[in-house]
């Protein structure tokens, strides 16, 4: 059974004994070491899940998707209950503004395409400080003008990054 372990990494273990057989303790130690290294390498190379940066970028993509799909529920789900802005003091007020946009026809399916809406963040820098992150710049444009956004997100107890603040330039 152990005869296949006579040579490991160029070292000839058959010379360890005068009768040409591998010492069981040497073979078992070598086999155990190889298995331990394989397990450690497997753990180190195994899937670790997305990084915080990837999770944050996923939320920015979800923001674009919800806005362009005219889906107010999905849009509001991206905002924390702790959301605050100097013009919109809380998430409930934000929800009222979103509903007002729906009622006025600004959030209808197909509006994004109709107005050549774009949202890009290729140049965005993500700065993470503990459980808070900022993303800037996020550029949004349509046939009626353009704005640049800076979003502040918070990693909440459930591990999801949600928007807690926004600054808009260009309005």
Description:
Strand 4 and strand 5 (132-142) form a beta hairpin. It is globular and about 40 Å long. It is 36% helix and 25% strand. The strands form 2 sheets. Strands 3, 4, 5, 6 and 7 form a 5-stranded antiparallel beta sheet that branches. The chain is an alpha+beta fold and 171 residues long.
Features:
171 residues; alpha+beta; five-stranded antiparallel beta sheet; two-stranded antiparallel ribbon; 5 helices; disordered N terminus
How would you spell out the order of helices and strands? EEHHHHHEEEEE
Total count of strands: 7
Largest sheet: 5 strands, antiparallel
Q: What is the C-alpha radius of gyration, as a whole number of Å?
A: 29 Å
* Proportion of strand residues: 25-35%
What sort of overall outline do the alpha carbons produce when their principal axes are compared? Answer: globular
Summarize the helices and strands and which ones pair or pack.
Layout lengths: L6 E2 L2 E2 L11 H22 L6 H17 L3 H6 L13 H13 L7 H4 L3 E3 L4 E5 L2 E11 L2 E11 L5 E9 L2
Could you provide a short overview of the structure?
By secondary structure, the protein is of the alpha+beta class.
């Amino acid at each position: 059974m152990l005869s296949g372990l006579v040579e490991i990494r160029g070292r000839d273990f058959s010379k360890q004994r005068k009768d040409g057989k591998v010492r069981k303790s040497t073979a078992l130690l070598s086999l155990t070491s190889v298995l331990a290294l394989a397990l450690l390498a497997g753990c180190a190379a195994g899937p670790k899940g997305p990084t915080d940066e990837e999770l944050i970028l996923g939320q920015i993509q979800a923001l674009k998707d919800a806005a362009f799909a005219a889906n107010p529920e999905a849009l509001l789900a991206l905002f924390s209950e702790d959301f605050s802005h100097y013009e919109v003091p809380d998430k409930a007020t934000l929800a009222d503004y979103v509903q007002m946009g729906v009622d006025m026809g600004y959030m209808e399916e197909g509006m994004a395409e109709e107005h050549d809406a774009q949202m890009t963040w290729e140049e965005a820098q993500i700065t993470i400080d503990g459980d808070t992150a900022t993303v800037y710049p996020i550029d949004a444009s349509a046939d009626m003008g353009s704005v640049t956004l800076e979003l502040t997100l918070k990693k909440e107890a459930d591990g999801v990054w949600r928007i807690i603040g926004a600054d808009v330039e260009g309005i």
